[in-house]
Prior knowledge:
With 504 residues, this protein is of the alpha/beta class. It has helices at 2-8, 28-34, 49-63, 102-106, 127-134, 177-184, 205-213, 229-239, 258-268, 306-315, 327-332, 346-356, 389-403, 406-426, 429-444, 449-456, 461-471, 475-503, and strands at residues 16-21, 41-46, 73-78, 92-97, 115-120, 140-145, 152-156, 164-170, 192-199, 219-224, 244-247, 253-254, 273-282, 288-291, 323-326, 360-372. It is elongated.
Amino acid sequence: xxxxxxxxxxxxxxxxxxxxxxxxADCQLVYDIGKMTSLERLVxxxxxxxxxxxxxxxxxxxDLNAELHLPDKIEIYDVDKIDExxxxxxxxxxxxDAITNTSDIIRFHVFKPQYILGIAHRDYVNTFSIWEAFxxxxxxxxxxxxxxxxxxxxxxxxxxKVELSVVFPMYNIAKYLPECIESIQSWDAEYVEYLFxxxxxxxxxxxxxxxxxxxxxxxxxxxKKNGGCASARQYGLEHAQGKYIGFIDPDDYIDTTxxxxxxxxxxxxxxxxxxxxxxxxYESNGETKEIHDLYGIPxxxxxxxxxxxxxxxxxxxxxxxxxxxxxxxxxxxxxxFYTDLRRFxxxxxxxxxxxxxxxxxxxxxxxxxxxxxxxxxxxxxDDERLYVHFPIFNYLDQFIRKSSDQKQLxxxxxxxxxxxxxxxxxxxxxxxxxxxxxxxADIQSNFKYLEGLYIIxxxxxxxxxxxxxxxxxxxxxxxxxxxxxxxxxxxMLKFKNRLKKLLK
Length: 504
């Protein structure tokens, strides 16, 4: 509790303190109060008569202590007598401790306190509900959790009333747009804005957005000349007002609870990044597949461990649309989308935010539906368009070198290897040799062979072979690796088909 009063002491304009105590509250609180010289009125709400008597005795003893400065006005009420309390015109702080019922805390929002401080017992008290109840009138809200890594909700009112902005880059996706929009609308939070960026699209996606915007003020249409997905995302980022920012590709859709769950986890622990699992949705047959990567412990509990966050650089799939990111993280590190990249612009964004994030939390649920195998989709590229990885990694090399973080360079090397493996498994044969040549130069840019071998060793023997083949430009070995992988996949498909026939 001392931490709460330390925070309160940073707000010198506080003249009135309303303190709500639970059955197990510590009488030490009154000593902390006595150290606050700025208070002119202290109001206590205490549940039991015995505790009220005990607190009263302590206050009388303290009043005789010349070192403390109790306010002239001290009032003690039964918790059930909230209607007897009449707030003054002083700036008011509301503080709570040992309360096991969220509704008891929320009742005090009618008094419109400017500052809210407390300890939330996570088994009983919903921190997010408290924030929602008080945020309209409060200037600051500071709530500690007595569980889950000592999470802290540390929120301050800003000029904008928007807490979360979601950016949608649009180009030729009118067919899918209604499903996407309707998936975001069921969460009726007024503090969210949805920014649809029309990137010079030749279809009627702008008209569709206008129709929905007429019924939902949170939906906003932004229009610009065509410049590619990175350009549209950056344009939306520059116009976003929220403290957190998310992205959706509007040919996809989400579970209706996704952004509510992400925002709730992010704000209750003041996390810089919150993300969830996602599904691949295959348009050709309508099937969905859950994608499994890093979203369990320690990430589901929330972590500020730099090693754990750095591991996400290599092992978390790019998929920036599965998360939300604090504006402070983005602005503090001058992170942006590289508008000269026509595709795969989410890769540098992912690496940059994860390399600079101080805290991360995950929701181990698959809440995003990523559409695959639709006509015109960039992920279907199998030609020189995949060469875009080389300028991307050139950007990232420079970005991470600025921080002089050797560990992040190590993880970037793993990202490079996995990315180049992915590209070579897709690229047409006539481009393979040239891609291998450029990939070799790329993975040599930061490490000598043995240094790189030490970094890649934990990826397994097959990845070590991939690394060696790329480093020394052994195109023939790369081709055999690709062929063997395809052969393995074909065998697995044959086995699955046989198994289905047997089970019929």
